[in-house]
Amino acid sequence: MGWFILGVAVFTEIVWALSLKWAATIGSWQASLVPVSLSFLNMALLAFAMREISAGTAYAIWTGLGAIGVIIGGIILFGEKVNGVQLGFMALIVIGVAGTKLFAPA
User: Fold this and answer.
1) Got the DSSP string for the chain?
2) Residues 102, 8, 59, 97: what is their CA dihedral angle, to the nearest 10 degrees?
3) Quick one: average pLDDT of 65-89?
4) What is the pTM of this model?
5) What's the chain's average pLDDT?
């Protein structure tokens, strides 16, 4: 169950970070409530996942996949650009996350 919760936490991390950019474009205090609310949910989910997964493993996967998701979301939603070198380093993050998961204690 911890891995499922961590997956949901990664998703909320991505939505949270993208909502920061969205709220900045809106520029109202009401829009700011979205990322603030998601931040609390995000931290709670990560904390629950860490009940079953070591802190280092959970945090590495959460931040790594979160970063990749935010980059992809930024490309899709905001038209942000990435170059080939950035894609290469993104691949290294994915390899690192996969290795962290594969070699995590059961």
Assistant:
1) -HHHHHHHHHHHHHHHHHHHHHHHHH--HHHHHHHHHHHHHHHHHHHHHTTTS-HHHHHHHHHHHHHHHHHHHHHHHH-----HHHHHHHHHHHHHHHHHHHTS--
2) 30
3) 96
4) 0.88
5) 94
